[in-house]
C-alpha cells in the first residue's frame, strides 16, 4: 500500500520495511529456532503415525507436541493480549485460576465421590459451570483493576497466591480420578482423528475472537482505552467497563484451558497444574511484538508467539533441560525481548543504523 | 502542628483528618496488629501470652522482615520487586552447596549471598532505571531466573552438616527477664536467633536512612512525583537504581538469614515470599503508587501476617492453604483501603481547587 512512499522518504530498502512489521519478531524467532533444530538434530521434525492404546490412529513427534501444548498457550494468549492492551498490565493469576477451573470441573463431574464409576452430569455442564466460576474470578480481578485502580499485576497477585489453595479447597484437598475414557477426548485425541483435540479447540477460539474483533468495536475500544484512558472517556467509551470486560474474557479463556488440562490427566495436581503458565502467556504476548504497557495489539502475532514459545520449550526439553530449570532460560529470553523493545535501546539502535548507512553512502 | 491548643480544642476528628498519609496508614496498621494480638490472647488461650511465642514469631520471620524492608524501599520509590523470594532460595541453595560440597567457610557463604544479591540488584536496577522497562516484568523474569538457577545449581534438597555452620545456627541470644516456667516447672530462658538481631539492625538502619538522610528523602521524592523530583535536582535514575540495588542486596542478606534459620538448601524454599513481603509492606502502610511508607509499619506488617498464621494454625486449621487464603484476603482488604484513601484525597484536592 503505502510501502513505496515509505521507501522513498526513508530511503531504506525492503529489509527494514520487513523489520518494521509486527509479525516479523515471532516469525523470525520461529525461523531461528527451526534452523537451530534442523542443524542440531533433523529428527526433531519427524512425525510418525502410531496407534494409541485403544487402537485409534494418532500422530506423534515433537511438532505434534508443539501443536498440542502450544494450543493451550494460544488460548490464554488471546485473553492475555486483551488484558495487556486494555490495562497496560498482565494477569499473573492465570495458572492459579486454571487450577480452580479444573478443580470445579472435577467437582461437578465427581461430586464428593473421588473415584466415580460414572460421571454425574455431562462434561458440557461441568465446563459451563467452570466458565461461570472462572469468569467470576476474572471479574474479581477486573473490579480490583478497573474500579479500585490497583496495578493489574499486584491485584492479580492476590489470586496468584490464594488460587491454588482455593482449588484444593473446592475438592476438599482430594484428587478425584475420572476413569471414563470419553473425558480424555478434550485433551487427547478424538477417536479416528490423528490430530490432538486442543488444536481444534484453539482454532475454534481463534475463529470466535477473530469474528468478535471484526464485527464489534471491542478491539478498537480496547486499544483506545490502552493508549489514552482519559481521551477514550471523553470520546464516550467507558474505560472501567472495557478493562473489566477484558479480565472476564480472560476468565473464559482460562476455563477452556482448565478443561484441556484436567482432561489430559483425568485428574488434577493442585500445586503443579499449569505451573508457570502465566510466564509463558506473558512471553507470548511480548514475543508477538505487543507493547506490555498497553495500547495497540496484534492478536495474530500473539497467537503465533504462543506456538513459538512452545517451540522453544519443546526444544529445551529435547536437550534434556529439567522442567524446573526451564524458567531460567525463558527468563533470559524475556529480558532480551524487553531490552530490545525498550524505547531507549530502539533509539540507540536506530542511531547506530543511521551512522552505518551514512558511512555506506560516503 | 502549628499550635497545640487549637488542635486540642478541635478534637481527635480534626487530628485524624489532618494526618499525613504515612501516619494514618501506620496508625491503622499498629491498631489492627494490637487488636489481633489481643484477640488471639482472648480467644486462643494463654499461648500468646508467653513472651517466647512472640519471640518465636520473630525467629521464624527474620528473613521476611529483612526482605520486606527492601520491598518497602522499592515500593516507596514507585517500583516493585517480585524476585526476592527467588533470590532467597538461590542464596540459600548456593550457600548450602558451598558449605557442604566445597567445605567453605561461613564468611565465604556470606560473601556469596551478598554477591548474588548485588548481581541481581545491578542488573534489575539498570534495566528498570536506565532502560525504562516496567519493574514488574524485569523482576518477574528475575524471579523465574532465580528459581530456575536454584534447580540448576542443585536439584535435590539437603540439610547442611558443616560444623561451624550448625554451631552458628544453634546460637541463641538470650533475652533477659522474659523467660517463663514450662510445664515441668523448669525455668526456660526466652531467646532469639542471630537472624533476628540482624533483622532489627536492618530495620533501624533503614529507618534512619529513610528518615534523616538526603538519600532517604530522595526515595520519597522520586516515588511521590518524578517530575518534581527531577526539578529539585534529584538524580531520578540513580535513585531508582539504588532502590533496586538495596532491595536485592537486602534479599541476599535475608536469604542468608533464612538459610541460617532453616539450615538446608532447596528449590522450594521461600515459595511465595515475594507475596508475603509485598503484603507486609502494603499492610504496613506503604502505598503501591509510591511516595508513602514507613519501615516501622513494615515491621508491624510482618508481625500482623505472622500473628494471622499463628492464629490459623492454633485454631486447628493448619492446612497450608488456609494461610494463603487469609493472607490474600487481608492483602485485598488493605489494597482496597488504600485505593479508597487515594480516591478521597483526590476528591478533596479537586474540591479545594
Please tell me about this protein's structure.
Chain A: It comes from Roseburia lenta. Chain A: Keywords: Cell membrane, Membrane, Transmembrane, Transmembrane helix. Chain A: It is found in: Cell membrane. Chain A: It is a multi-pass membrane protein. The complex is a heterodimer of chains A (362) and B (353). Chain A is an all-alpha fold and 362 residues long. Chain A is built from 15 helices and two strands. Chain A folds into two domains: 58-320, ABC transporter involved in vitamin B12 uptake, BtuC, CATH 1.10.3470; 326-362, no CATH class. Helix content of chain A is 68%, strand content 2%. In chain A, strands 1-2 form a two-stranded antiparallel ribbon. In chain A, strand 1 (48-51) and strand 2 (57-60) form a beta hairpin. In chain A, helix 4 (62-87) runs parallel beside helix 8, helix 6 (123-147) runs antiparallel to helix 7 and helix 12 packs parallel to helix 14 (326-341). The longest helix of chain A is centred in the last third of the chain and has 27 residues, at 239-265. Chain A is globular. Chain A starts with a helix and ends with a helix. With 353 residues, chain B is mostly helical. Chain B has a domain at 51-271 and 287-293. Helix content of chain B is 73%, strand content 6%. In chain B, strands 1-4 form a two-stranded antiparallel ribbon. In chain B, strand 2 and strand 3 form a beta hairpin. In chain B, helix 3 (51-76) packs across helix 12, helix 4 packs across helix 11 and helix 8 packs antiparallel against helix 11. Chain B is globular. The interface between A and B is large, with 47 and 45 residues.
Amino acid at each position: 500500500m503505502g510501502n513505496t512512499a515509505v521507501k522513498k522518504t526513508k530511503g531504506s530498502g525492503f529489509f527494514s520495511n520487513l523489520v518494521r512489521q509486527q509479525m516479523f519478531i515471532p516469525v523470525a524467532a520461529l525461523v531461528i529456532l527451526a534452523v537451530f533444530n534442523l542443524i542440531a538434530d533433523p529428527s526433531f521434525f519427524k512425525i510418525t503415525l502410531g496407534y494409541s492404546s485403544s487402537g485409534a490412529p494418532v500422530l506423534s513427534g515433537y511438532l505434534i507436541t508443539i501443536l498440542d501444548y502450544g494450543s493451550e498457550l494460544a488460548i490464554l494468549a488471546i485473553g492475555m493480549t486483551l488484558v495487556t492492551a486494555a490495562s497496560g498490565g498482565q494477569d499473573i493469576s492465570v495458572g492459579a485460576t486454571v487450577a480452580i477451573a479444573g478443580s470445579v470441573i472435577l467437582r461437578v463431574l465427581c461430586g464428593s465421590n473421588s473415584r466415580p464409576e460414572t460421571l454425574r452430569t455431562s462434561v458440557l455442564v461441568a465446563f459451563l459451570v467452570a466458565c461461570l466460576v472462572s469468569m467470576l474470578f476474572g471479574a474479581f480481578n477486573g473490579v480490583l483493576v478497573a474500579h479500585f485502580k490497583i496495578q493489574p499485576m499486584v491485584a492479580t497477585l492476590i489470586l496468584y497466591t490464594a488460587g491454588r489453595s482455593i482449588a484444593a479447597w473446592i475438592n476438599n484437598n482430594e484428587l478425584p480420578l475420572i476413569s471414563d475414557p470419553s473425558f480424555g477426548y478434550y485433551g487427547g485425541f478424538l477417536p479416528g482423528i490423528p490430530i490432538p483435540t486442543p488444536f481444534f479447540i484453539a482454532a475454534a477460539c481463534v475463529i470466535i475472537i477473530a469474528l468478535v474483533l471484526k464485527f464489534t468495536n471491542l478491539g478498537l475500544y480496547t486499544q483506545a482505552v490502552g493508549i489514552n484512558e482519559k481521551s477514550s472517556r471523553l470520546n464516550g467509551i467507558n474505560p472501567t467497563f472495557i478493562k473489566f470486560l477484558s479480565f472476564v474474557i480472560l476468565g473464559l479463556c482460562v476455563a477452556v484451558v482448565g478443561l484441556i488440562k484436567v482432561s489430559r490427566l483425568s485428574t488434577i495436581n493442585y500445586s503443579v497444574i499449569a505451573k508457570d503458565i502465566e510466564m509463558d502467556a506473558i512471553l507470548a504476548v511480548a514475543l508477538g511484538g505487543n507493547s506490555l504497557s498497553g495500547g495497540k495489539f496484534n492478536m495474530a502475532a500473539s497467537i503465533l508467539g504462543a506456538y513459538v514459545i512452545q517451540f522453544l520449550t519443546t526444544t529445551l526439553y529435547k536437550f534434556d533441560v529439567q522442567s524446573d530449570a526451564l524458567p531460567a532460560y525463558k527468563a533470559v529470553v524475556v529480558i532480551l525481548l524487553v531490552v530490545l523493545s525498550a524505547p531507549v535501546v530502539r533509539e540507540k539502535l536506530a542511531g547506530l543504523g543511521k551512522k552505518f548507512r551514512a558511512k555506506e553512502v560516503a | 502542628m502549628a499550635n497545640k491548643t487549637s488542635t486540642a480544642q478541635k478534637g481527635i476528628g480534626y487530628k485524624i483528618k489532618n494526618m499525613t498519609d504515612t501516619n494514618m496508614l501506620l496508625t491503622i496498621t499498629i491498631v489492627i496488629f494490637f487488636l489481633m494480638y489481643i484477640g488471639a490472647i482472648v480467644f486462643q488461650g494463654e499461648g500468646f501470652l508467653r513472651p517466647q511465642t512472640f519471640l518465636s514469631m520473630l525467629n521464624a520471620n527474620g528473613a521476611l522482615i529483612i526482605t520486606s524492608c527492601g520491598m518497602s524501599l522499592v515500593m516507596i520509590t514507585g517500583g516493585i520487586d517480585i524476585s526476592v523470594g527467588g533470590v532467597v532460595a538461590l542464596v540459600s541453595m548456593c550457600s548450602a552447596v558451598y558449605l557442604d560440597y566445597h567445605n567453605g567457610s561461613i564468611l565465604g557463604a556470606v560473601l556469596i549471598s551478598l554477591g548474588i544479591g548485588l548481581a541481581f540488584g545491578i542488573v534489575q536496577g539498570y534495566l528498570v532505571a536506565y532502560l525504562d522497562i516496567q519493574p514488574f516484568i524485569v523482576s518477574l523474569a528475575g524471579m523465574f531466573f532465580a528459581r530456575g538457577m536454584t534447580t540448576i545449581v542443585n536439584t535435590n534438597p539437603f540439610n547442611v552438616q558443616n560444623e561451624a555452620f550448625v554451631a552458628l545456627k544453634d546460637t541463641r541470644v538470650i533475652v533477659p527477664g522474659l523467660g517463663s516456667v514450662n510445664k515441668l516447672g523448669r525455668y526456660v530462658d526466652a531467646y532469639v536467633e542471630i537472624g533476628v538481631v540482624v533483622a532489627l539492625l536492618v530495620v533501624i538502619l533503614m529507618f534512619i536512612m529513610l528518615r534523616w538522610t538526603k538519600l532517604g528523602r530522595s526515595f520519597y521524592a522520586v516515588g511521590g512525583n518524578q517530575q518534581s523530583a527531577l526539578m529539585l535536582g534529584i538524580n531520578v535514575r540513580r535513585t531508582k537504581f539504588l532502590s533496586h540495588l538495596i532491595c536485592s542486596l537486602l534479599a541476599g542478606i535475608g536469604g542468608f538469614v533464612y538459610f541460617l534459620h532453616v539450615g538446608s538448601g532447596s528449590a522450594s524454599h521461600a515459595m511465595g515470599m515475594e507475596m508475603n513481603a509485598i503484603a507486609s509492606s502494603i499492610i504496613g502502610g506503604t502505598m503501591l503508587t509510591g511516595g508513602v511508607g514507613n519501615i516501622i509499619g513494615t515491621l508491624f506488617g510482618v508481625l500482623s501476617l505472622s500473628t494471622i498464621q499463628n492464629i490459623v494454625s492454633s485454631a486447628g486449621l493448619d492446612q497450608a492453604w488456609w494461610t494463603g487464603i487469609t493472607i490474600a484476603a487481608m492483602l485485598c482488604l488493605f489494597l482496597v483501603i488504600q485505593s479508597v484513601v487515594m480516591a478521597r484525597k483526590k476528591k478533596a484536592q479537586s474540591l479545594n481547587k
